[in-house]
Write a structure and sequence with these properties.
Elements (H helix, E strand, L loop, with lengths): L7 H11 L6 H8 L3 E10 L5 E12 L5 E8 L4 H17 L5 E8 L7 H15 L8 E5 L5 H15 L20 H19 L8 E5 L3 H12 L3 E6 L4 E3 L6 H8 L12 E3 L11 E4 L18 E3 L8 H9 L3 E3 L1 H4 L2 H15 L5 H26 L3 H19 L5
Parallel strand pairs: 3-4, 3-5, 6-7, 6-10, 10-11, 11-12
Antiparallel strand pairs: 1-2, 2-4, 7-8, 8-9
Helix pairs in contact: 3-13, 4-5, 6-7, 6-11, 6-12, 11-12, 12-13
The structure holds nicotinamide-adenine-dinucleotide.
The site of nicotinamide-adenine-dinucleotide has 25 residues, from helix 7.
């Protein structure tokens, strides 16, 4: 029964275009009910010799356009409803960037900072040994997400290959280069975001050197977008980590901050800079605001205080649907997550293509292909915005929904 596996927030996200597209209830169900949702419980032997049971999830949302694809997150707040929402967004993301994939997502409820390296490895391997029958290069392909990295992908690949007895590097992406990973995977999400932002700013005649940027999050995505934008002449006026934000209206020295972060210390310990809370950073006066940490950070409570002209959503769903409406009325334009942060999955797709054909491309080739893919998708969005006189989010949802439903029709699932 549909009610059993419903994704409530997917429904409210789709509401934004359901009437524009005259979707009927069957189409809405096909789009918002995940095909498969797994909950796994598995034991891990901890360093003290005791066994601890962990809970993990994998949602394979829709595979009409190809094998499902999506990251695995390690976080204490992983919850099944959010995993479904993220898998839904992955389905749309792969469609708007024209990738032959459906969407998936996974996670484990865990604070990885509290684990030793050995415990982290055993946890990563156990997730795969529990789930491996449902994964594979032609079925469902995981990747890194919050708190998972190339090393975790390497352990997961090794466990999968140990169990299946075959080399299958295309079963997971975001691997170290030595195991078939892509040369630019680490910067791919931020690079993709940059290409999209550049195109949109060109369209609005905004100049990088006159553009101020505030960034929430200084992890893989936040740090790299800060570096890329600063290298292209943008003025980065604020950045933050989980503990605190720092700001300077004259512009921060991003390379110094990157060096500082190598010490693994938080910005709260950094001397000689002005501090700002993680909430206030979202309300700073700036041209471009980039949420690059967690979801649901701009809500109906703080949306009215946002002063940016443009929001580049590098985190997944950082703006709630209610906040999206408030920002729309304030004429704050949002470059939505399903395009803004799609660079990661685009390069994952390239990695999968190289793994499955055993032919590897150089760094420049991957970067050029990423640029082409992102610029094409951004232009396609621009045309839909004009045709439907709608926001960027509505345009992307219209495109993605049409592509997924068309694939379902071709398969005979829908008439
Ligand atoms: P990460 O773990 O490398 O970095 C997360 C950053 O957020 C860190 O700087 C951390 O200090 C900060 N943070 C943690 N809790 C916070 C809080 N409560 N308030 C403010 N900041 C906080 O993760 P990442 O890979 O950079 O991912 C960041 C976001 O981008 C996530 O929403 C993720 O889903 C999304 N994303 C990542 C990729 C990718 O390729 N890594 C691709 C698409 C989307």
């Amino acid at each position: 029964m549909a009610e059993k596996n419903v994704c409530t927030s997917c429904n409210s996200m789709l509401d934004k275009v359901a009437s524009l597209l005259n979707l009927n209830q069957t189409e809405i169900d096909v789009l918002t009910i995940p095909s498969r949702s797994f909950t796994f419980s598995f034991p891990v032997i901890m360093d003290d010799g005791k066994t601890k049971i962990f809970t993990g999830y994998r949602v394979q949302f829709n595979s009409a356009r190809g094998p499902t694809k999506g990251g695995i997150r390690f976080h204490p707040k992983v919850d099944p409803e959010e995993v479904k929402t993220l898998a839904f967004l992955m389905t749309l993301k792969c469609a708007v960037t024209n990738l032959p994939f459906g969407g998936a997502k996974g996670g484990i409820i865990v604070d990885p900072k509290k684990l030793s390296a050995g415990e982290l490895e055993r946890l990563s391997r156990r997730y795969i040994s529990t789930a491996y029958k449902f994964l594979g290069p032609e079925t469902d392909i995981p990747a890194p997400d919050v708190n998972t990295n190339p090393q975790v992908m390497a352990w997961m690949l090794d466990e999968y290959e140990r169990l299946t007895g075959k080399h299958q590097p295309g079963m997971i992406t975001g691997k170290p280069v030595e195991l078939g990973g892509s040369a630019i995977r680490e910067i791919s999400t931020s690079m993709g975001g940059y290409f999209t932002l550049r195109e949109i700013m060109k369209d609005r005649k905004m100049k990088p050197e006159q553009t101020t940027v505030a960034i929430q999050g200084f992890g893989n995505v936040g740090l790299n977008i800060a570096k890329i934008l600063s290298d292209h002449g943008y003025k980065i006026i604020a950045v933050s980590d989980s503990k605190t934000g720092i700001y300077d209206l004259k512009g921060l020295d991003v390379r110094n901050l990157m060096d500082y972060k190598k010490s693994k210390k938080g910005f709260d310990k950094l001397k000689g800079v002005k501090k700002i809370t993680n909430q206030k950073i979202l309300e700073l006066k700036c041209d471009v605001l980039i949420p690059a940490a967690l979801g649901d950070v701009i809500t109906k409570n703080n949306a009215k205080n946002v002063k940016a002209k443009l929001i580049l959503e590098l985190a997944n769903h950082p703006v709630t649907p209610e906040a999206d409406d408030i920002l729309g009325k304030k004429k704050v334009e949002i470059i939505p997550d399903i395009l803004a942060n799609a660079g990661g999955v685009v390069v994952s797709y390239f990695e999968w293509v190289q793994n499955t054909s055993n032919y590897y491309w150089g760094r420049k080739e991957v970067l050029d292909k990423l640029e082409t893919q992102m610029v094409t998708a951004t232009k396609e969005m621009g045309r839909t915005c004009k045709n439907f006189k709608c926001s960027m989010r509505q345009a992307l949802y219209i495109q993605a929904v049409n592509k997924v439903l068309y694939a379902e029709r071709l398969r005979g699932v829908l008439k």
